[in-house]
From TrEMBL:
Organism in which the protein naturally occurs: Budvicia aquatica
Alphabetized GO MF terms: metal ion binding; RNA binding; RNA-directed DNA polymerase activity
The protein, known as: RNA-directed DNA polymerase
Taxonomic lineage from the root: Bacteria, Pseudomonadati, Pseudomonadota, Gammaproteobacteria, Enterobacterales
GO BP: defense response to virus
Keywords: Antiviral defense, Magnesium, Metal-binding, Nucleotidyltransferase, RNA-directed DNA polymerase, Transferase
Amino acid sequence: MPDMPLWKYCTTAHYLEFLISLQLFGDTDWCAEKQISCLYTISNDVNAHYQRTTILKRDGTPRHLLAPDPLLKKIQKNILRNILAPVPVSPYATAYHKGADVVANAAAHLGQKLLLKLDIEDFFGSIIFPMVRRSAFPDIYFPPAVSTLLTHLCCYNDALPQGAPTSPTISNLVMKPFDSHIGEWCSARGIIYTRYCDDMTFSGDFDAKAVKNKVGHFLQALGFSLNKEKTKLLTRHTRQSVTGIVVNQKLQLSRDYRRQLRQEIYFCQKFGVVSHLKRMNYPLESGDVERYLQALQGKVNFLLQVNPGDDVFRQAMSGIKQMIKANRNSQY
């Protein structure tokens, strides 16, 4: 690793002073020596500070996450707030930054002739240690030893863990060169491009094969690959959807989504949440009812983001909030 001129004459004491200045523990009464010792202890065995957990995605399927323990999570949140969040990302990235909006991501592709959807395979797992170090903590801004330490604190098995507070923002920084290059290439050809996490969407009137080849080759050069099973080319004569939102003529969720959501809420209100979950063979361990209701609330929130004037689901939201309150009261 070549020495950067800025850090060439810095001593270890300078590095440690720089590290303390990042305020990775926030407001703390710990002395500098204790903070440094704790950071290096965690970074030397960072995998031990994660546990596997599962949440429900919007469509009800499970998402497996690696959740950091409270101390590592606090450090990562401070890395995010003090270091990563202020760094601008590409305008083509429509997730994981202030002002990012899944609805705006879909709206960019409204009423287009063709819609090409491409997916990056094992997105977070493909973002490995050198990518994180180079993109999030470059040597031009960080002493090499500090850059390496920060990278360790944000990785699991030398890759980005899905579930760490820092991972989404780091993924945008890693993808910034890709977004800029592909975005400019598409813009020159009248193609609309957005990327929501690992979901890339292209719309307009274009040669889909040429776009797919261009994207695939550039991704491969960066260490990624396309998930070919998720490639979809949709014409205006079929239902075009982007991040779950139909974009043919106006932004809306599918009839199936709305019908299933109405049915789910109805059964909860008629039979009670616990009875409904038992009928669905849903696990009923501690906290499962709360998690289910929060997931249901998230689905309705999503619908209201797309169609804020939907009075039926606004009323349904009130009912869900009442069920959440009743469930919490029943715990006491």
